[in-house]
UniProtKB/TrEMBL annotation:
<keyword id="KW-0378">Hydrolase</keyword>
<protein>
    <recommendedName>
        <fullName>Cytidine deaminase</fullName>
        <ecNumber>3.5.4.5</ecNumber>
    </recommendedName>
</protein>
<keyword id="KW-0862">Zinc</keyword>
<dbReference type="InterPro" id="IPR016192">
    <property type="entry name" value="APOBEC/CMP_deaminase_Zn-bd"/>
</dbReference>
<dbReference type="GO" id="GO:0042802">
    <property type="term" value="F:identical protein binding"/>
</dbReference>
<feature type="binding site">
    <location>
        <position position="106"/>
    </location>
    <ligand>
        <name>Zn(2+)</name>
    </ligand>
</feature>
<dbReference type="InterPro" id="IPR006262">
    <property type="entry name" value="Cyt_deam_tetra"/>
</dbReference>
<dbReference type="InterPro" id="IPR002125">
    <property type="entry name" value="CMP_dCMP_dom"/>
</dbReference>
<dbReference type="GO" id="GO:0008270">
    <property type="term" value="F:zinc ion binding"/>
</dbReference>
<keyword id="KW-0479">Metal-binding</keyword>
<dbReference type="GO" id="GO:0072527">
    <property type="term" value="P:pyrimidine-containing compound metabolic process"/>
</dbReference>
<dbReference type="GO" id="GO:0004126">
    <property type="term" value="F:cytidine deaminase activity"/>
</dbReference>
<feature type="active site" description="Proton donor">
    <location>
        <position position="71"/>
    </location>
</feature>
<comment type="function">
    <text>This enzyme scavenges exogenous and endogenous cytidine and 2'-deoxycytidine for UMP synthesis.</text>
</comment>
<feature type="binding site">
    <location>
        <position position="103"/>
    </location>
    <ligand>
        <name>Zn(2+)</name>
    </ligand>
</feature>
<dbReference type="Pfam" id="PF00383">
    <property type="entry name" value="dCMP_cyt_deam_1"/>
</dbReference>
<feature type="binding site">
    <location>
        <begin position="58"/>
        <end position="64"/>
    </location>
    <ligand>
        <name>substrate</name>
    </ligand>
</feature>
Length: 148
């Protein structure tokens, strides 16, 4: 007989090893951050509905307004590889005793792909809280609003 494939992960939040992998990938991405101006490295890791993880870091530019956040880098990488359905994102920084949160622009870009997914906000020591995207951007505007 052939080798049996493990069943697909149930819908909902990543658990156990999968969650630890998502958190680790966000920390690894943070180490790649290009932030010579702010010296504020951020990493993000995005879990697709299909179980793949895309990571991203912030990339600054001497023309400050051209910089891009870690969350948007991860989303753009996933989109460019054909993924548009997401389950969770982990975000990491060196912010000490505070949870890192996505900026307003990132929240809106995340919102483009639904409100029903999880965002893991971490502290530098690895502890985290989980928020639904709809909690981070209430009363939001999205693609369906253009059809009204």
């Amino acid at each position: 007989g052939g080798q049996r494939l493990a069943p697909a992960a149930p819908p909902g939040r990543p658990q156990g090893e999968r969650l630890q992998l998502l958190l680790r990938r966000s920390r690894e991405a943070k180490n790649c951050a290009y932030c010579p101006y702010s010296r504020f490295p951020v990493g993000a890791a995005l879990l697709t509905a299909g179980g793949e993880i895309f990571s991203g870091c912030n990339v600054e530019n001497a023309c400050y307004s051209l910089g891009v956040c870690a969350e948007r880098t991860a989303i753009q990488k996933a989109i460019s590889e054909g993924h548009t359905s997401f389950k969770a994102m982990a975000i990491t920084s060196d912010m000490g005793d505070h949870f890192i949160v996505p900026c307003g622009a990132c929240r809106q870009v995340m919102r483009e792909f639904g409100t029903d997914w999880d965002v893991y906000l971490t502290k530098a020591d690895g502890t985290y809280i989980v928020k639904r995207l709809e909690e981070l951007l209430p009363l939001s505007f999205g693609p369906e609003d253009l059809k009204k």
